[in-house]
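Narrative of accomplishments. A recurring question from our advisory board has been how the design workflow behaves on a single, concrete structure rather than in aggregate. To address it, we present the structure tokens for one chain from the evaluation set, followed by the sequence designed for it. No filtering or post-editing was applied between the two.
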């Protein structure tokens, strides 16, 4: 053998036994000896032997898989080699490692995957995906808020972060929904018309309204279009996951948006009361809201009338001391203009 050949051989030998592996790497190894509570493994590419604890052999703890001397397998690096300990391996985590690899590929490629919601936790939900536990922050949920109806649902998600070393899997439902919307929005909107009645699911509730899934795209249901009656918040009427029928009141083809109405599914109560009430009439109503300047009285389903503080008594009174929500009271209709959606009431004039 020439000196050059010897140098090349030594370099090759050095390269062969100079590999280093990190946690979560997949290595090939051969079972060389059974120990009392595990196996010694000869790992391809390193000089020293690695250790496979019995508890990390695949199969159940009661019936672990039987390994034979000479078996060649792929192993997961559980702990790196150091001066004090040999590299530790696992067969159990091979499936997990493959799942991590698949999820990393999904992140790189931008693929959408399925995840099953298993529980609600602080700040979001935990999901099961490919046998691993992942986390979807509330900000990445389509609903914006976790709710019990999500548990056991299978939802489409995108991978934001997949780090097997930190056992950290962060996912986004909103990104998956946004991509889906872009794919179907034109077809869905072209199939809809204004004044059409459609069925959808409430997928998000905000202070200004609710978003309703209509055939894969979210339509906006403004708070002003939820009820003919005054409401403080959309959640007073709607719950996440509700299936409701709504009317399409506007389609913006340029912005690809649809606006919806729930209240227009019923007749306008202000039209219904024309001819049923008149000025000077004494009626009964229910206190719906108390404010510093008076009280709002429900005199007909969906119709509120104002009882100003000046019309409660000739004396100076505090409405909060006079009424509470739900009280039934007798009032006089002092001004009746349903065309303007205004009715003024009085109590002090009843006796006059």
């Amino acid at each position: 053998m020439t000196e050059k050949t010897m140098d090349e051989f030594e370099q090759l030998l050095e390269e062969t036994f100079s590999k280093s592996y990190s946690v979560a790497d997949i290595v090939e190894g051969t079972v060389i000896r059974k120990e009392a509570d595990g196996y010694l493994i000869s790992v391809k590419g390193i000089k020293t032997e690695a250790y496979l604890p019995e508890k990390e052999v695949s199969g159940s703890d009661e019936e672990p898989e039987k390994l034979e001397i000479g078996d060649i397998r792929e192993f997961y690096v559980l702990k790196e080699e150091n001066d004090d300990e040999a590299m530790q391996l696992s067969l159990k985590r091979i499936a997990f490692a493959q799942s991590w690899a698949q999820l990393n590929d999904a992140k790189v490629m931008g693929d959408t995957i399925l995840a099953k919601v298993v529980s609600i936790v602080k700040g979001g939900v935990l999901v099961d995906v490919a046998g691993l536990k992942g986390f979807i922050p509330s900000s990445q949920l389509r609903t914006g808020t976790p709710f019990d109806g999500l548990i056991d649902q299978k939802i489409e998600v995108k991978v934001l972060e997949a780090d097997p070393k930190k056992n950290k899997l962060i996912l986004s439902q909103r990104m998956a929904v946004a991509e889906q919307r872009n794919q179907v929005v034109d077809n869905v909107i072209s199939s809809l018309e204004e004044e059409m009645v459609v069925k959808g699911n409430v997928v998000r509730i905000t202070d200004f309204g609710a978003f309703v899934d209509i055939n894969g795209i979210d339509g906006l249901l403004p708070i002003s279009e939820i009820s003919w009656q005054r409401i403080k918040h959309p959640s007073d009427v709607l719950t996440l996951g509700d299936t409701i029928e709504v009317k399409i009141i506007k389609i913006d083809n340029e912005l690809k948006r649809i606006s919806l109405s729930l209240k227009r599914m019923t007749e306008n109560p202000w039209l219904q009361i024309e001819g049923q009430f008149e000025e000077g009439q004494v009626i009964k109503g229910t206190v719906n809201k108390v404010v510093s300047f008076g009280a709002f009285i429900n005199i007909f389903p969906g119709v509120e009338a104002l009882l100003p503080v000046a019309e409660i008594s000739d004396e100076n009174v505090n409405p909060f001391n006079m009424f509470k929500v739900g009280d039934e009271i007798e009032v006089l209709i002092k001004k009746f203009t349903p065309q303007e959606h205004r009715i003024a009431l009085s109590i002090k004039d009843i006796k006059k």
